[in-house]
Structure to design on (372 residues):
């Protein structure tokens, strides 16, 4: 599988660079007959769009998506629908400022992929990081919008739960709050704390890390596969592929190490519908690599943005030791705009898992007592 492609039955290939004329993706494996318009995709791209707040990059991009293939509308249809062929999506870059990067054309920015790309390929696009730029995630969000249409009974939503050292108070958790503030915070009380922290970071010319939590409800039991096709392994892989992601945990994750066996095990009782009811969800909705019917829960840790105004020690292509400060327009906290990207990657993984499960078993799940 190409390193520009992810997925099995639902496959997404992204293309383009930060300062190229455009970027986009090709979505292959989408079933036919699904209503799909550019407006449906645009709603999710607007959540990730740059220039939308004080504490995100001020690069002004409309991120207007165009559907180039894979849909058709005729008099027998009630609207534009997928045809089952590859869906090509394109987003033009309109506000590049490549001159901002002229001073680092020969220098390796600390914390960036500059040196790693140069060591591998011997050439790199220094304008905003080229292919390694988080600008590429716009294409992922577009693909995630298509993925959601394949799993209409599943709700995927994410929230920012930590910026720097400041965590949300889970006793205040309210999903509705994530739509009421620019940080996707589920805790209204944390917003002024984050704003004060971000203002200090911004004025200092520095950056800060963050943690995003994603929850997918409505996932039936049975999606995923044992051993090398585990749903949590594929989810972790997809989330780790997001720019600046440095850690992923499923369910209680690393906190599980502090629990006893009796505390960690998600006990079950029979529900009124004759199906098991879990009394906790330490496993994050996945056991043995297969969904249990509970909410699928994961968290992603994002490192601080590496582009900062504070001079840092580095070297250049000539092997000279230099001090470097990175100019340009950058997010002081990439986790803020990472929320819709985390949602999109989760949706893509679940859409792929659904199609593979349906292909293998011919159904969503096997309820207790059902004939095999």
């Amino acid at each position: 599988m190409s390193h520009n492609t992810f997925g099995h039955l639902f496959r997404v290939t992204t293309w383009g660079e930060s300062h190229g004329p455009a970027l986009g993706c090709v979505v292959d494996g989408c079933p036919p007959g699904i209503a799909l318009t550019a407006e449906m995709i645009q709603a999710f791209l607007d959540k990730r769009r740059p220039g939308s707040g004080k504490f995100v990059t001020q690069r002004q991009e409309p991120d207007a998506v165009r559907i180039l293939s894979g849909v058709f509308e005729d008099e027998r249809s009630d609207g534009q629908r997928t045809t089952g062929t590859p869906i090509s999506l394109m987003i033009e870059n309109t506000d590049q400022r490549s001159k901002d990067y002229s001073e680092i054309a020969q220098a390796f920015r600390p914390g960036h992929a500059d040196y790693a790309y140069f060591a591998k390929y011997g050439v790199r696009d220094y304008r905003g990081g080229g292919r390694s730029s988080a600008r590429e995630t716009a294409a992922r969000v577009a693909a995630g919008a298509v993925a959601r249409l394949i799993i209409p009974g599943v709700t995927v939503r994410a929230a920012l739960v930590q910026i720097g050292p400041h965590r949300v108070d889970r006793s205040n958790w309210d999903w509705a709050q994530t739509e009421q503030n620019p940080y996707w915070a589920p805790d209204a009380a944390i917003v002024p704390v984050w704003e004060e922290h971000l203002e200090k970071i911004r004025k200092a010319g520095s950056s800060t890390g963050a943690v995003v939590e994603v929850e997918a409800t409505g996932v039936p039991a049975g999606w995923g596969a044992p051993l090398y096709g585990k749903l949590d392994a594929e989810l972790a892989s997809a989330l780790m592929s997001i720019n600046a992601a440095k850690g992923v945990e499923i369910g209680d994750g690393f906190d599980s190490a502090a629990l006893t066996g009796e505390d960690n095990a998600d006990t079950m009782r029979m529900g009124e519908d004759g199906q098991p009811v879990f009394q906790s969800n330490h496993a994050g909705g996945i056991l043995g690599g297969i969904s249990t019917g509970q909410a699928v829960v994961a968290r992603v840790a994002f490192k601080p943005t590496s582009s900062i105004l504070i001079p840092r020690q580095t070297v250049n292509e000539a092997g000279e030791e230099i001090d470097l400060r990175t100019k340009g327009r950058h997010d002081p906290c990439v986790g803020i705009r990472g929320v819709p990207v985390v949602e999109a990657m989760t949706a893509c993984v679940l859409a792929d898992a659904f199609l593979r499960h349906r292909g293998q078993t011919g159904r969503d799940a096997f309820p207790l007592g059902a004939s095999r």
Observations:
- The radius of gyration is 22 Å.
- The CA atoms of residues 203 and 300 lie 26 Å apart.
- The chain has seven helices and 18 strands.
